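[Q] Does anyone have a clean structure-token version of this?
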Amino acid sequence: MKIDFLNYPAGSTLVLPAGVFDYDDDEIIFPDITIRGQGMGRTVLRGHRLVNAIPQFHLHNTTLQDLTLEIPMLPRDDCTLVGFASQPRGSTPYSARIQRCELACPGWCSYYWADDNATSEATMPSLSIEDCLVRHGRWGLTCGNSGYGMNLNVERTTFIGNAAWMWAGGSVSDPVWGGVAAILFRGGHLKVTDCVTCLTGGPGADSAHAWTPRLLSITDNNGEHGTIFPPAGTTRIEVNGLRSWLFANGSTFVYDLDVSFIKPENLVVSAGNCAGSAPDGGLTFSPGPAMP
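[A] Here you go.
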């Protein structure tokens, strides 16, 4: 089954039945509508597109509820499941919500790029992810930018990441590209509330990379790849309630928070009610409870 979502008018709600909607390697655009399924694992939108940093499913001002988005969890090359579509310069920034959904992809589970269209805090695109399950090989949520960044709100969401789901796709435990991270964030506002991460590093599916498991990877990329540093004080990270289990599995280092490439004067971090392993980046984590 396939549905052309562009046939539905802005502001409408599309309720999908249970079943699998298979989109091969097509790029699918979700317009300014609400798409509601019958629950995780019951309504499944499945793709097979193997492309680096170009999502198969593109969000606009979209709300996704009660469904699964997936690229089958088989070891494979770079693939990207869902993210923002390109936005015309000067247009109103996109704002999307993903609620009670499962996102599953062996590569980049979600990818969002705030380009230089975001020239101020008011023009940053926004995404809220609530009560979701994110299963990923490389990165769960990837938020890059060459401008101010984006607003990302993540609530009551569980991340399960494992290097074994991913083929080569980064330097060996490289602080910019390597690693298995729940969230990679490059500028803007990030708020994490009552979330769980369970990340397994070690060799990838091709055994060529010993990837470091990271709770959060926060980097301005040290100016590489055209990234523009957001002005001082505009990158804000707030973490309220976080449980993390990190498994090195042969990788060299284990970090909870990698801030090795961020300019310290550009970052404000606050954290509370957090537990995990191996403190880093100036945050203190107390021993956490047993893994659920």
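[Q] Thanks! Anything notable?
[A] The chain has one domain: 5-275.
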